[in-house]
Design brief:
There is one protein chain. This protein has 749 residues and is α/β, with parallel strands linked by helices. It has five domains: 181 residues, Rossmann fold, CATH 3.40.50.300; 76 residues, Arc Repressor Mutant, subunit A; 166 residues, P-loop containing nucleotide triphosphate hydrolases (Rossmann fold, 3-Layer(aba) Sandwich), CATH 3.40.50; 154 residues, PCRA, domain 4, CATH 1.10.486; 54 residues, Thrombin, subunit H (Beta Barrel). It contains 30 helices and 23 strands. The strands form five sheets. Strands 11, 12, 13, 14, 15, 16, 17 and 18 form an eight-stranded mixed beta sheet that branches. Strands 3-2-6-7-1-8 form a six-stranded parallel beta sheet, sandwiched between helices. A five-stranded antiparallel beta sheet has the order 22-21-20-19-23, with no helix packed on it. Helix 10 runs parallel beside helix 12, helix 14 runs antiparallel to helix 28 and helix 21 runs antiparallel to helix 22. It is globular. It binds a DNA duplex (15 and 10 nucleotides) through helix 4, helix 10, helix 19 and helix 27.
Length: 749
DNA sequence: GGCCGTTTCGTTTTT
DNA sequence: CGAAACGGCC
């Protein structure tokens, strides 16, 4: 293989060829950043570097997958041997090898955010603290912040600065919670996402021989999206590169959008200080977008104060102006976008896959989906509710996790009474207290339950323990797939789902089968050397997306958040919801830095487009249960108007629903809010569960009668969540929306 | 313990 | 709005 470098421009070539010594590539949007990385790796291998000695780190799974595919296409099978992946996946792999050094089991569990929050909730409760003050979310955020800065609980507790901070915030016990949380995670043999990085740092700090091994092993390190790394990640790479000093980082400060996870542009500045011999290369020519798009993006980003000097330019054609769609409501906005896509497809002979619709929050996808469905345009959603977050999937995974690691407290809590075996919350809480008091693991107690208690509950617990023990045996002789199938069967999970013949039940059953298939594929894949269930679970914990059948059909319009869109490009891009408070997000407007990050996010969105960019906003929008009137985003004003074509495509003014003022807004203004009494009770939003196994005869528009609330009209029927619950939107007197029990409704047909 | 209805609460992005 | 916590009752 002879690598052809003529297709690269001068700075790109420089970045590829400068293999020895530290290198920083400041790469503007669309400047061929990934290309440089791939050529660089190919070049290294061509110069007979063993792929095993190259480590390429990315920030997201998607970026890692894309890089892997492209490099495999270029250099073939050898690419498999490169250590390439996200920070979290690569270092969880290393932690797995070296777990003993940290006194962790090698099959440690990885807690996702839900596990962490649930664990914190128990800890807060056990510590008898007020969970209104110590909200699990807030506490977890604080702990995460500390870990990203490599502050251990020991340091945190003794740090006067943090203590003062917590006192002011009214949360003096924060340090103690951090400590308890870490100890419980450790006892459960579990690490959360931040621990994966934190503990890698600890491993390298306390075990010089381990560090030494990896330092010498990895001769070349590459970090993609360097602007998104936090201190913890930076220090890991710095340590790993300390021997060979062949660290290449690629990034763009204008696209730094992960400060909320501790990413710090400061890393770029520190990098220059840490490596005086650093070579810096700037890629400023954009090959992706039209001149209009590049220039309008530049006109936006110059409003940011904090940025490196860089001038992105392009040789490409001028292109069409940027379109701006002004709609009266969110629903109309979606319709207009769908219509626009339809017309563009016809006029330009384009395919679905040429389009992407980007938004700030996942919740915004709903309207757009509906509009696309109505126009028969196929789409796919990236991110959002993932396959792995479905209840039935989490249930089976919890079983598998527990089979692999009997100390996993969160998994145990999830499965011990699933299917129902008469072990309630009270019992579980009691067991946890027992375990803590005697300083043994929960499993120790459950495995020998008769020494602690007797009676019917004890029998149930003993039966559960025996079930788990029977899987232990299977683990020794069978492969991951066989164990998983056995667990699914013998735990009763599969049976319970199989018996549920509702459409949702059938789909849940299929999902579980799909998970089992995935495990089978994992086992059958010759590329995977380690076929244990533990490895599968760790891999899966770090995944967020699922390649289902929908995603395999490539010709679909792509819907996703701007965060997920980073690194991708599309011919035509729509950015919807360009409204103040939504984008920039209301939650982000705390400081000037926050606003700048939102602006960079918009910059990322704009620069995804190759040929055509369309922005849209709605004058009123359904949000948090209310219709709110909206102001156009300040970012629209910051765009240079000469590149914009305002296509005021909303219909008539009176078509716009009049924005309604709601209780929440009055409340904010300080006015007293009265609850609307229903039948004398202050039932503002009555709701109820029902069994969808009842025939779903209910349709919008039907007149129904409720024993308590009287007659009304059904405005919507929907199934809620994965549980056996559903809600009816029920309009009474044309004004108020109530949520009612389905079971008790009389249907007047 | 578990069902069922009620209340509260968070509402952003990813690993 | 929707998820999850809560609380009363069998």
């Amino acid at each position: 293989m002879r690598l052809k470098l003529d297709s690269l421009n001068e700075p790109q070539r420089e970045a590829v060829l400068h293999t020895e010594g530290p290198l920083m590539v400041i790469a503007g949007a669309g400047s061929g950043k990934t290309r440089v990385l791939i050529y660089r790796i190919a070049h290294l291998i061509e110069q007979s570097t063993d792929p095993f000695r190259i480590m390429a780190l990315t920030f997201t799974n998607k970026a890692a997958n894309e890089m892997r595919q492209r490099i495999e296409k270029m250099i073939g099978n050898e690419a498999r041997n490169i250590w390439m992946g996200t920070f979290h996946s690569i270092f969880s792999r290393i932690l797995r090898f070296e777990a003993e050094r940290l006194n962790y089991p090698s099959n440690f569990t990885i807690y996702d955010t839900d596990d962490s929050k649930s664990l914190l909730r128990s800890i807060i409760r056990e510590a008898a603290l007020d969970d209104k003050v110590y909200k699990p979310n807030v506490v977890l955020g604080r702990i995460s912040m500390a870990k990203n800065r490599l502050i251990s609980w020991q340091t945190y507790i003794n740090d006067p600065f943090y203590r003062a901070d917590d006192e002011v915030a009214g949360r003096p016990e924060m340090g103690r919670l951090y400590k308890l949380y870490q100890q419980r995670c450790f006892k459960s043999g579990a690490m959360d996402f931040d621990d994966l990085l934190f503990n890698t740092n600890v491993l390298f700090r306390d075990h010089p021989d381990v560090l030494h091994k990896y330092q010498h092993r990895f001769r070349y390190l590459l970090v993609d999206e360097f602007q998104d790394t936090n201190v913890s990640q930076y220090l890991i790479t710095k340590k790993l590169a300390a021997v060979h000093r062949n660290l290449c980082v690629v990034g763009d400060d204008a696209q730094s959008i992960y400060a909320f996870r501790g990413a710090d542009i400061q890393n770029i500045l520190n990098f220059e200080k840490d490596y005086p011999e650093l070579k810096t290369v700037r890629l400023e020519q954009n090959y992706r977008s039209t001149r209009n798009i590049v220039e309008v993006a530049n006109s936006l980003i110059k409003h940011n104060d904090r940025q490196l000097r860089k001038e992105v330019w392009t040789d490409n054609e001028q292109g069409d102006q940027i379109e701006l769609i002004k709609a009266s409501s969110d629903a109309e906005e979606a319709r207009l976008v769908a219509t626009s896509i339809f017309e563009d497809k016809m006029n330009g002979a384009l395919r679905n896959q040429d389009f992407a619709i980007l938004y700030r929050t996942n919740a915004q996808s709903r309207n757009v989906e509906e509009a696309l469905r109505k126009m028969n345009i196929k789409y796919r959603i990236v991110g959002g509710l993932s396959f792995y977050q479905r209840k039935e999937i989490k249930d089976l995974l919890a079983y598998l996790r527990f089979v692999v690691n009997h100390n996993d407290e969160e998994a145990l809590k999830r499965i011990i009474n699933l299917p129902k075996r008469g072990i309630g919350d009270t019992t579980i809480a009691k067991l946890i207290v027992m375990a803590n008091e005697n300083d043994v693991s929960l499993w120790d107690i459950i495995g020998n339950i008769y020494t602690a208690m007797s009676g019917r509950t004890a029998n149930s617990i003993d039966a559960f323990a025996n079930l788990i023990k029977s899987f232990d045996l299977a683990m020794q002789t069978k492969n991951a797939f066989e164990v998983a199938s056995q667990v699914a069967r013998e735990s009763g999970l599969l049976k319970e789902l199989y018996e549920d013949k509702t459409p949702e039940g059938i789909s849940r059953y299929e999902n579980v089968q799909e998970l089992l298939n995935a495990i089978k594929e994992f086992v059958d894949n010759p590329e995977n050397e380690d076929k244990t269930l533990g490895t599968f679970l760790q891999t899966v914990s770090l995944l967020t997306s699922w390649e289902d059948d929908q995603n395999k059909d490539p010709d679909r319009v792509t819907l996703m958040t701007i965060h997920s869109a980073k690194g991708l490009e599309f011919r035509n891009v729509y950015v919807v919801g360009m409204e103040e408070d939504l984008f920039p997000s209301q939650m982000m407007l705390n400081s000037r830095e926050d606003l700048e990050e939102e602006r960079r996010l918009f910059y990322v969105a704009i620069t995804r487009a190759e040929k055509k960019l369309t922005l849209s906003y709605a004058l009123s929008r359904y949000r948090f249960g209310n219709i709110r009137s909206c102001e156009p985003s300040r970012f629209l004003q910051e765009l240079d108007g000469q590149y914009l074509k305002v296509t005021r495509r909303f219909r008539t003014e009176e078509a716009a629903p009049r924005p309604t003022r709601f209780a929440a807004q009055f409340k904010r203004a300080g006015a007293p809010v009265k609850r609307i009494p229903v039948n004398g009770k202050s039932a503002h939003q009555p709701s109820a569960n029902f069994r969808p196994s009842d025939p779903m005869r209910l349709k919008a528009g039907m007149t129904v009668e409720h024993p308590k609330f009287g007659f009304g009209t059904v405005s919507a029927v929907e199934v809620q969540g994965n549980d056996r619950k559903a809600r009816i939107n029920f309009q009474q007197h044309g004004e108020k929306t109530l949520l009612l029990s389905f079971a008790k409704l009389m249907i007047h047909e």
